[in-house]
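Why do we care about 3D structure at all? Because function follows from shape, and shape follows, mostly, from sequence. That is the central idea of this module. The next example makes it concrete: a single protein chain, its amino acid sequence, and then its structure expressed as tokens.
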Amino acid sequence: MTNTTNNTLMVANTVDALIEKRRIWEEGTYAASNAELYTLLGNTLDLFLKVRKDRGLSKAVTDLLDTYNVTYNSQTSLALRIVRLIFVGSGRETKIANRAYTYARVLVVAADQRITGETLPKFITDNNGIDEIRRQGADGESPAALAKKSREYAESVLHNQPSLMSVDMMDDLQPVDGAFYSLALVRKNADGSASVVFGTNNAAAVNTVLSIAGKTLKQKAAQTAEHNVAKQDAEQRAENVAQLVAGIAAAQMPTDVSVTEAELTPA
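And the structure:
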């Protein structure tokens, strides 16, 4: 057996052993720790939901911050004040500042989506953890999820989109295997013409531009739809007015007039 084979076998055995330890940790200590944290956050959410509806309870939270010498100011949100009381304490504000902001954000997102303390652990698990919830916007989707939707929209629209200009498919512009898009850096020349001066199929760069394209295309589609609706509405209003005018004119015109011969004969 060669040294290379021995080395590969040794590394493989070590990695397999570490993977097994990682699995045990994830399913044991780590899972239990997360379960306890999520339950504690659920209890904290229940308190937050009560306090934010009661000015007296809100003042009590502020009084306790002063009593326990926990740092806050007039701009500190109620959620963050409660989190600092429970999770931070005096003198530890800077050590776990990011965690405190994250926990406070989870409370606010959960409250906005009408989650209770009892259902918070499942809510966190269903949303792929605390950090993903922290990134969520008002609609409940994280920037990563929104970017993915924008990329998918761009890919579907651009698949049959007429080209802005045609270029030779040089090696630097070849997409990665299985993909359809790459990026070209275009330079505007002094005479007003354009030249492709650099190309890349870097996946991260391509995905970023596709996300931008998808967002822009969605906005244009929405604007076009709004314009069409406004146009149709204006046309319908014009048609209604025309029908109304015609109806009024018809109502005012005599429909059964009887004229005698005597009336037509000059006196």
